[in-house]
């Protein structure tokens, strides 16, 4: 593999001697880099850099506060619109239910009135029957059961 040509064809294969030279140069380069580090005083920013950095931080804070206020406004507006939409939707549903109930009452109100009248009449007749025949109410049917029976019928 080392004797084969690379696809680019420009570089000859590395030998062990070349590899050892590269490693040694890397060691010397790392040592040189450590020895030639800049002085600690050169890492401290100058007064101009400090002023610019403070201005950048100030502008960044102002932009962040402005964006936060804008986003809070948008969030409040979205919440208000969502609430209004939901309220309109439910009010629309309630209106449609009320309209359908009125329509059913108008259509079948006479039947309902007649059923209530018949139930009250049957109750009076039942009480009169019990009075005539000196009977107390039917022990199997309580008063609330009787009313419930006629409401179901």
Structure commentary:
By secondary structure, the protein is mainly alpha-helical. The protein has a domain of 105 residues. Helix content is 78%, strand content 0%. Helix 3 crosses helix 4. The radius of gyration is 48 Å and the shape is elongated. The termini are far apart. 0% of the residues are buried.
Look at the structure and give the mean pLDDT.
Answer: 79
Distance between the termini: 98 Å
Question: What fraction of the residues are assigned to beta strands by DSSP?
Answer: under 5%
In sequence order, what are the helices and strands, one letter per element?
Answer: HHHH
Low-confidence stretches: none
- Count of DSSP H/I helices: 4
Helical content (DSSP H or I, runs of 4+): over 70%
Give a quick summary of the entry.
The chain has 153 residues and is mostly helical. The chain has helices spanning 16-35, 40-43, 47-132, 143-152.
Key descriptive features of the protein:
153 residues; mainly alpha; elongated
Show the helix and strand layout.
Elements: H1 16-35, H2 40-43, H3 47-132, H4 143-152
């Amino acid at each position: 593999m080392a004797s084969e040509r690379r696809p680019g064809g420009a570089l000859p294969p590395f030998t062990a001697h070349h590899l050892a030279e590269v490693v040694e140069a890397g060691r010397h380069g790392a040592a040189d880099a450590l020895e030639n580090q800049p002085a600690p005083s050169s890492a401290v920013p100058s007064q101009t850099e400090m002023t610019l950095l403070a201005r950048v931080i100030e502008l960044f804070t102002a932009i962040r506060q402005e964006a936060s206020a804008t986003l809070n406004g948008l969030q409040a507006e979205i919440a208000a619109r969502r609430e209004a939409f939901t309220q309109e939707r439910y009010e629309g549903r309630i209106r449609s239910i009320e309209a359908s109930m009125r329509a059913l009452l108008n259509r079948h109100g006479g039947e309902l009135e007649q059923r209530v009248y018949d139930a009250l009449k049957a109750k009076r007749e039942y009480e009169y029957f019990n009075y005539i025949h000196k009977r107390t109410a039917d022990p199997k049917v309580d008063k609330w059961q009787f009313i419930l029976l006629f409401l179901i019928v």
